[in-house]
Amino acid sequence: MTGDAGAEAMKGNAPAQLEVRGVTKAFPGCLANDDISFRIEPGEIHALLGENGAGKSTLVKIIYGVLQADQGDLIWEGKPVTIHSPHDAREMGVGLVFQHFSLFETMTVLENIALAMNDVRDMAVLRQKVIEVEKTYGLPLDPDRHVYTLSVGERQRIEIVRCLLQNPKLLILDEPTSVLTPQEVEKLFETLRRLADEGCAILYISHKLHEVKALCQRATVLRGGKVVGGCDPREETAKSMAEMMIGQKLTAPDRGKQREFGDVRLDVTDLSLISDEQFGTHLKNINLKVRGGEIMGVAGVAGNGQNELFQALAGETEHEAAPDSIKIDGKSVAHFGPRRRRRLGAAFVPEERNGHGAVPDMSLSENGFLTAFRRMALAARGLIREVPTRSFADNIIKTFDVRTTGAGAEAGSLSGGNLQKFIVGREILQDPGVLVISQPTWGVDAGAASAIHQALLDLAAKGTAVLVISQDLDEIFAICDSVVVMSEGKMSKPRPMADVSIEEIGLLMGGLHDLEGNATPANDMEETGGRVGQA
Amino acid sequence: MVRLEPRRQHSQAMVYLSPVLAIFMTLVVGGIIFAFMGKNPFDALYTFFILPINNSYGISELFVKATPLVIIAVGLAMGFRANVWNIGAEGQLTMGAIFGGGLALYFHDSESALLLPAMFVLGAIGGAFWASIPALLRTKFNANEILTSLMLTYVATLFLSFLVHGPWRNPEGFNFPESRPFPDAGLLPIIYDGTRVHLGTAIAVFVVIAGWLLLSKSVIGFQLRVVGKAPQAARHVGFRQKRMVWFTLLLGGALAGLAGLFEVSGPIGQLQPQISPGYGFTAIIVAFLGRLHPVGILFGGLIMALTYLGGELAQITLGLPNAVTGLFQGILLFFLLACDVLTKYRIRFGSIAAKGRTA
Fold first, then answer.
1. Is the pTM for the entire model greater than 0.80?
2. What is the rounded CA–CA span in Å between residue B312 and residue B322?
3. Which of B:126-145 have CB within 8 Å of A?
């Protein structure tokens, strides 16, 4: 047991809300959980830390009854329990906000919530309850919207609302803040603290260590399926916890000296575009110029037009942008499809890895071929050249330290971080002149994230114009030279990173209406300022 | 307790084993059905599956029947890979026979060596034309090609029926609903004397090899696999789905049309109201039995051809209804789809609790 790590959280000899004892779970070819033990007290906010593949998700699935442990016990309020299914778990009082949302896209918010409840008798009553919870916890959401029309951030709210409706005694959150503004994160934390004060235990899984530091009283660190330690996050630094997670020293991304910027390589002028999606965000007069060697960040809350911007730049949209509204190295590409843009030296990395950036049930070799066959000359006379295709994939795997069984492995068998390294590597090795990358480290562990950040910095140092669309402000502050903010399909003026504060960006994320140029941070925002400060 | 456990990767072994397993289970269930019909299951299975091919003529007939199945299935598999569900190969086959056969009837006194190649071309055009209708409806109006292609099958077969009952009926044919016999120049040469094995069979082998090259080695084959497996990824890299719909439907239609032409200018030798015992539909099963892979389809085609021969023989010697053929084909498809679960999942026996320490 690691209970001694946070003695103050222990309330005398009262039984823990949940105690995990010696849980072991093996999958074909890997031991996902190896003799894991820890305990969560009622009212405690407990962090579960670990890289992707450390076994966090497996452990969560065991607690939630999705998987069964091969060995070990779960002790709930002092009594050993067997949790056969999520239904059992919910019955006991376990709520889970999944990292990958388990929502039915063609159904409404309310219907999705009803599906996850153990017994729903009256939809009208449920609707009332939903609206109540939304009000209490500040989670605005129209119960009658269809899920496919919602942004990632809004989808997450459904998951949170449906957990809260069940008055959970243990709430598990898997990477919950990746889609929120700093202000929204603070609001979520208030919600969580209030829940904890009411006696609800919270198991909080995140890679954002400063958040863990701000919120959690105790942390259990997993590595390679084993518990490697526990700590009090309030007494650690983000760096020390990250090193505990990855088991080695962490180096901050090396930004190099003050870099010189070259000519404008990506030029977007007055880009307006009707969204292909029924409830999508239309782009309104987007202007931005990214110079060679520059990394520009696009901040904003999910669903404010970032996906539409990415699709417009990548050439995926059905509607065509106005002529000359998008230029790559001075050449107008608005009427070009993705392949012709790539031929001009542009490269793109979408937010979703599985099914968008990569084909999950094709091999890494084939996935390398997917975007690179023209620039890397992997095809000749209409046929795939097997040897160069394979060695290109091998090269990505080697250069970007992708952990896999080899180029023949299916992309879907890789962990999120490793697949992301592969995809980013695939684009970088094509030596692009312009790289547009969306959420480069979404759901990626600290080790892989810092490798990706370094790779982007190195790429820019070689003269590439890089546009990073990200909801993670830390990421933008860590690697970008300048930043723009998107809100409701509009974009703020670019600002050098050096003279913009996190509060200003937070305010711009909330709406651009009267803030163009001279933003004056409101008083109530100041308290959030220190939280996301850079080390 | 028996439960299914997801595999980390698709099992390559099961991809190839599952058709074998499905065939085995089909035999078992088929035997049980024969027993219920009052036949000795071993005799019946012997009659159905062994007797048709225990002499060289039987084996040659197997190739004759497998020829259209393989040609059509290779084309269909391309579409299925790209999530284009052309169910109307039977209609495209019929249209191919009408177009190519029409040419032979028009030049019914021709001795030109060019007639047969021209019929090939026209047969392929006929099938592709018929498939272009669902392609157009799908790409312009987003109409489901499963329905449109299937419905067009009935239009095509009725059109053929109209032709041979009316305008194209043989004037010297005693009013039978048949066309004139094709001229010799419009008949496929027999490539093995004393049998009905014709040039089409050799072309089927060529189609298999070309199909394999296209699917596994070519950029366009890669594109259609990506479109099928991950449409959004295809859009991301600029592989146009509409282009794949056109490509696969035209290719599938052309091959079905060619197969139809081979039937009328090969074993049949004229146009009749009925030119195919459902090859276009059976080819769907062949495509899946062959794992949507041209080489697999070659084997799948031979197996399904055997069900046709066995069905005929069972009718003659055992007095079983012709429906037995369809029954076997259906059971086989059923087990095949069921066994495919095993490529993504493994079966585990024993309860979960037995391994853990439960209080």
1. no
2. 7
3. none
